[in-house]
Design goal:
Aminopeptidase; 3 domains; Nonspecific Lipid-transfer Protein, Chain A; alpha+beta; globular; 19 strands; binds coenzyme A
Length: about 425
């Protein structure tokens, strides 16, 4: 029986963190045990973050966590906004669908707006959840699977000078974080991984399975001068049917500073003995792998999905922070926001790779909801596709021009992080 008792949404105290972590783990259907020691390890990461709970008496029936962290936006290295990163969103199955998520997320978005944070960012557990709060799917990830062994047809210049070492995850701590940060800085939507996340990922933080994690295989690519230029982290899933193997090598992290390093890593991955398929998840939409293959039809699947969702909170600040490649020109844009946080009408002037948004009362050329503009903001989701779906309205030429202006290369990068 839980119908009558009042539920209070408020900040979580240090003494409540264990129950809070257990509640979120339960709702995510994760049977793993959360101990006081785990919470102790997490605590430094939670410092400075906002941990919210929905409490029914002492019982935690809802969890929510957010923190401000820079997010690269289109424009190349140095173009970034402070974003309200949202995670650990759960409401107990006994308390769902009575508005607890709505209460937690609207308060958080409003507070972020008041702090002057122009964007919120999250990974959605299920796609139908966050559109109603003004989020749009802004970064996609694709799975690429290649039948192995597979030959490469083309090698970019310099690939022959890249050396590939077989190492273990724990060996990556010295080189991988800085390389990842450098790659991420040039890709919209690529969250820089915090130190504690690296320690966790590479099995260097104490935890239930940290020994096994530290020993997982990895590749480290170095250029002729010995500098780290690429990393691939993977696992193999061995499968036999009688005397025949059908073994999959799963790449769950691959990043490289250059096309040459990317090709050198793939050349190695596609030639490992006893491996029949190589599957890489969370690859960006513009991954060059299919263009490297001698037989591109060996790349199968290409299954894709939304990876990150964005939510604009301050349209002029967000548009002004990113770089623009598209044709110059002006447009009056009207944005509707059901939560009343980011709506308005502005004249956008694109000149010299920058946009200035000035409030106006002029008739709009393009009208959309905040979720549609948020989906297009990081340069990957075409505004014209959103218009074809009825999410953006306006004269076709005006929509096409704004769509071309918002587009950005390289595409957003769905690298995973400590969300
Ligand atoms: C998703 C979750 C947090 C929603 O919490 P909640 O308190 O039930 O949400 P609310 O009551 O505020 O729902 C608000 C609206 O969103 C809808 N909604 C919520 N979750 C939904 C889902 N998973 N799919 C479709 N609609 C959903 C509700 O039906 C409701 O619609 P209405 O306003 O038209 O009635 C909760 O169901 C949950 O913890 N699920 C499992 C964990 C999870 O997926 N977390 C999200 C990880 S990013």
């Amino acid at each position: 029986m839980n119908g009558g008792q009042r539920v209070e949404v408020r900040a979580v105290t240090e003494g409540e963190q264990l129950e809070w972590a257990r509640a979120s783990r339960r709702t995510f259907l994760n049977p793993g045990k959360v101990t006081a020691e785990h919470v102790e390890q997490r605590r430094p990461a939670w410092q400075g973050q906002r941990l919210t709970g929905a409490f029914e008496g002492a019982r935690v029936v809802g969890t929510y966590r957010s923190w401000d962290w820079p997010l690269p936006v289109p424009g190349g290295p140095g173009h970034q906004v402070l974003a309200d990163h949202v995670s650990t969103v759960t409401v107990a199955p006994t308390h769902r669908r009575r508005g607890l998520l709505t209460q937690m997320i609207t308060a958080d978005l409003r507070a972020a707006r008041e702090r002057g944070v122009p964007l919120a960012y999250l990974v959605a557990g299920e796609a139908p959840i966050y559109g109603r709060y003004g989020f749009g799917p802004a970064v996609s990830g694709q799975t690429l699977e290649v039948r192995a062994p597979a030959a490469l047809a083309h090698l970019p210049a310099g690939a022959e000078d890249v050396g590939v070492e077989l190492v273990q995850d724990a060996d990556l701590r010295a080189d991988a974080p800085a390389l990842h940060a450098a790659v991420a800085a040039g890709r919209p939507g690529a969250v820089r991984r915090p130190d504690h996340y690296w320690d966790d990922l590479l099995g260097l933080a104490p935890g239930p399975d940290h020994d096994a994690k530290a020993l997982r295989p990895a590749l480290l690519a170095r250029d002729a001068a010995g500098a780290a230029v690429g990393v691939a982290r993977y696992r193999t899933r061995e499968r036999w049917e009688g005397m025949r193997h059908d073994t999959v090598l799963e790449v769950h992290d691959l990043f490289a500073a250059t096309g040459a390093a990317h090709a050198a890593l793939w050349r190695h991955l596609l030639s490992v003995d006893l491996v029949d398929r190589v599957r890489a998840t969370e690859r960006p939409a513009d991954d060059p792998l299919p263009h490297l293959l001698h037989d591109p039809r060996r790349a199968i699947g290409g299954e894709g999905s939304d990876q990150f969702w964005a939510r604009l909170l301050d349209v002029p600040a967000a548009l002004g922070a990113r770089g623009w490649l598209g044709p110059p020109g002006a447009c009056v844009l009207e944005v509707h926001d059901p939560l009343g946080l980011a709506g308005g009408r502005w004249r956008l002037d694109l000149e010299g790779g920058r946009v200035v948004a000035v409030p106006t009362a002029a008739e709009p050329d393009v009208t959309c909801d905040v979720g549609a503009l948020s989906a297009a903001y990081l340069g990957e989701t075409p505004l014209v596709a959103l218009a074809a779906a009825g999410r953006v309205r306006g004269e076709a030429a005006a929509v096409a021009r704004l769509s071309a202006q918002l587009a950005w290369q390289p595409t957003a990068w769905p690298t995973h992080t400590g969300f």
